[in-house]
Structure formats: structure tokens, C-alpha cells
Write a structure and sequence with these properties.
mainly alpha, Virul_fac_BrkB, membrane, transmembrane helix, transmembrane, cell membrane
Length: about 350
């Protein structure tokens, strides 16, 4: 048996890292993530237009938040969206968002499968379900990470509108850590359980989810510090740096997601050995089939172990000889009588003993 050590584990982890091609895959993820952001803005803008919200109100609250070059560029676009909502633009935004999200999902799943040593996956139905689940989970994780990093800025913007008290702001600041940690951990756990096209051992998934949670919270905190110290007096070149920081954040966030999957793949191979190829849809069906068979076997076993009813006693047949009951004996000596044959037609008289 091969001796296990920390050095061998790090070597195996590095081999999975190279197999997944993390650097290139993270760049692809960040590119398609950025491609999904602007169509989402189109969708949100058109939906707000259908709600009949005045453009002056929205611009009034966006102007103090956005840098001046940003505001001068986006204000006409926002005003156009809110005053002239277009179903055509909404449809284009939805189509582009779905396309970019599907590309992002395909790149992420391909990289995770390579980390597990799986290179060819052609299950169309499984990939369709993966697309739905992964898009929802990635959006949830991204929103939690951004809310964790931008919660203070969001509260400052929303405070004049909703008249938040200082106690409420302090309460949100206190609970954002546990809520963000639990939310990102749960979503990451589900993500790593359903994405790989292998038979995933769920007891090893928590490690990668923990790595992803810590990495995303750390990135959110760094991004929050950048927003805090550079949100005022932003010039044009600093606006460009903001885009660069955002792209860097997306690249690092994608890298953290991939590293979490690599940790899970390394742990499962380290403790289980060979990894079996099976998508999560097939795994769910296989688990349900095994559970059903186990239930039937248990039911059959319990039916066999029940006590059988005792058969009724058989009545004695004619072939069986029955013993004659002994004649009843008199209790007193005086009751003992003997009979003698009649003589000359006289009746017999009982004869007593003296």
C-alpha cells in the first residue's frame, strides 16, 4: 500500500489543477460572466419600464453613486429604457443572457470534469438539467458575494429612499457575515454535487465548498475596501481601473470556483481510488432504483420472518384405537353388590356381604 503524506497530496492536487487548466478556464468564465451582465441590465431596465417608474427618480438616486463619466454615459441609456420600454430589446437581452450563460456553464462543467479525469460527456438531457441548476446556483452565489462586498454601499444609497435607521444598518452589518457564509456554502455544496459527470461522494464535497466560501468572502471584502476608498472623486482613468478591478474580481471568482472542484476531485481520488463516470441525473435515478430494491428486499424479508399460524389439531380417525374409559368404582363398601342368575323364575335379590 502506498504511503500517504502531505507532499503526495499536494502533488496530486497540482496534477488535478493542471488537468483542469484553471487559468484559461477562469478567463473564459469571467468573459462569459461579463457578457451576461449587460444583457441582464437590459432585461432589468425594460422590466422597470413596464412598472411605470419615472426616470427622474431613478437618475436622482444613481447620480451620487456612479462616477461622473459613468453617469454621463449611462444616463441617456437609462432614460431611454425607462421612457420607451421595448419588448424587442427585452427579447434580445434574454436571448443574449441565455447564450452567454450556457457558454459559461459549458466551460465550467468541462473544466470540473477534466479535474475529475472525465473528458467526453455527450448526455444532452443531463446537460440541459445541469444548465438550469447551474445558472440558478451561480447567480445565487454571485449575488451573495456582491451583496457581501457592496452591502455598505447599497445601504448608503437606499437609506434616503427607505429611511433606514442606524440600528437597522448596524444589524445588517452584523448578520451579513453568517448569512453570506451559510448561503455561499450551501449553494457551493449543491453546485459541486450536481456539476461533475461522475459518481460524486457527498462526504468529500464539503471541503471544496468551504474553500469556495472562504475565497469568495475574501474577494468580496477586498472589493468592498476598493469601493470604500475609491468611490469618491473618480476620474476617467480611475473609471477604467474600476472595470479592470471588476474583470479581475470575476477572473479570481471563477478561479476560486474551479479550485473548490479540484479539491473535491483530489480528496475523492485520494480516499476512494478510481472515479466512476456518471452524471447526477443518472446518479439520482440509480439511487432511487437501489432504494426501491432495498425496500422490496426488506419487505420480503419481514414477510418471511413473521410467525406462521399453528395448524388446527386433527380429529382422531377410525383407524386410531380409542382407549375405553374405566368403569366408575363405588365409593362405599355397602354399594358393592353382586348379581346371581335367577332361580325358578324368581327375581334376583341383591346379595350383601357380611
Amino acid at each position: 500500500m502506498q504511503k500517504r503524506s502531505l507532499g503526495l497530496f499536494i502533488k496530486a492536487l497540482w496534477a488535478h489543477y493542471q488537468s483542469a487548466n484553471v487559468s484559461d478556464s477562469a478567463s473564459v468564465l469571467s468573459y462569459y460572466m461579463m457578457m451576461s451582465v449587460f444583457p441582464i441590465f437590459l432585461i432589468v431596465g425594460n422590466l422597470i419600464a413596464f412598472l411605470r417608474i419615472k426616470s427622474a427618480m431613478v437618475l436622482h438616486y444613481l447620480k451620487p453613486v456612479l462616477p461622473l463619466p459613468f453617469y454621463q454615459t449611462l444616463a441617456p441609456v437609462i432614460r431611454s429604457f425607462l421612457e420607451q420600454g421595448s419588448t424587442g430589446t427585452l427579447s434580445i437581452g434574454i436571448i443574449v443572457t441565455i447564450w452567454s450563460a450556457s457558454k459559461m456553464v459549458a466551460a465550467f462543467q468541462r473544466s470540473i470534469n477534466q479535474a475529475y479525469g472525465i473528458h467526453n460527456t455527450n448526455a444532452v438531457i443531463s446537460r440541459f438539467f445541469s444548465f438550469i441548476f447551474i445558472v440558478v446556483l451561480v447567480i445565487g452565489i454571485t449575488l451573495l458575494g456582491l451583496l457581501f462586498g457592496l452591502s455598505e454601499a447599497i445601504l448608503r444609497v437606499a437609506k434616503p429612499w427607505f429611511q433606514f435607521s442606524n440600528q437597522f444598518t448596524a444589524f445588517i452589518g452584523n448578520i451579513k457575515w453568517p448569512i453570506s457564509f451559510i448561503g455561499i456554502f450551501v449553494l457551493s455544496y449543491i453546485l459541486y454535487a450536481i456539476v461533475p459527470s461522475v459518481r460524486v461522494k457527498y462526504r468529500y464535497v464539503w471541503a471544496g465548498a468551504l474553500v469556495t466560501t472562504a475565497g469568495w468572502l475574501g474577494l468580496g471584502q477586498i472589493f468592498s475596501l476598493y469601493i470604500r476608498y475609491f468611490e469618491t472623486n473618480v476620474t476617467s482613468y480611475k473609471t477604467i481601473s474600476t472595470f479592470i478591478i471588476l474583470m479581475l474580481w470575476m477572473n479570481l471568482a471563477g478561479m476560486v470556483l474551479l479550485i473548490g472542484g479540484i479539491v473535491n476531485a483530489t480528496l475523492q481520488e485520494w480516499f476512494q481510488g478510481e472515479i466512476q463516470e456518471m452524471h447526477f441525473v443518472d446518479q439520482i435515478m440509480d439511487t432511487a432504483r437501489h432504494s426501491h430494491q432495498k425496500h422490496l428486499a426488506k419487505k420480503k424479508h419481514s414477510g418471511q420472518t413473521k410467525a406462521k399460524p399453528t395448524p388446527p389439531k386433527k380429529k382422531p380417525t377410525n383407524k386410531t384405537a380409542t382407549k375405553a374409559k374405566p368403569a366408575a368404582q363405588p365409593k362405599n363398601r355397602s354399594q358393592l353388590q353382586t348379581k346371581r342368575p335367577p332361580v325358578n323364575g324368581q327375581k334376583n335379590k341383591p346379595m350383601t356381604r357380611h
